[in-house]
Amino acid sequence: MGYNRNVYKIYFHPYFTIKDILIFVLILLFFIFLICQFPYYLGDPDNFKIANSIMTPIIVFFICLFNFTGYS
């Protein structure tokens, strides 16, 4: 059913560990580049709107409305 000789086995540590660390470092470098070069690219657009202290945001109104309808 399988190979009993050590010649045909691929050990986990030197191959897959280095491969996983390399992929992790590349993804980390990509996100560091993205954050440093385009800091507002991953941000929420609502953070750039001017705040109005008189008006309640729509999302807060609907969350409170959901709590008082009896479905919670």
From TrEMBL:
Domain Cytochrome b/b6 C-terminal region profile: 2-72
Chief location of this protein within or outside the cell: mitochondrion
InterPro entries the record matches: Cyt_b/b6_C, Cyt_b/b6_C_sf, Cytb/b6-like_sf
Entry's Gene Ontology cellular component terms: mitochondrial inner membrane
The keyword Transport appears for this protein: yes
Subcellular location: Mitochondrion inner membrane
Alphabetized GO MF terms: electron transfer activity; metal ion binding; oxidoreductase activity
Membrane association type: Multi-pass membrane protein
Keywords: Electron transport, Heme, Iron, Membrane, Metal-binding, Mitochondrion, Mitochondrion inner membrane, Respiratory chain, Transmembrane, Transmembrane helix, Transport
UniProt protein name: Cytochrome b
Organism of provenance: Habropoda laboriosa
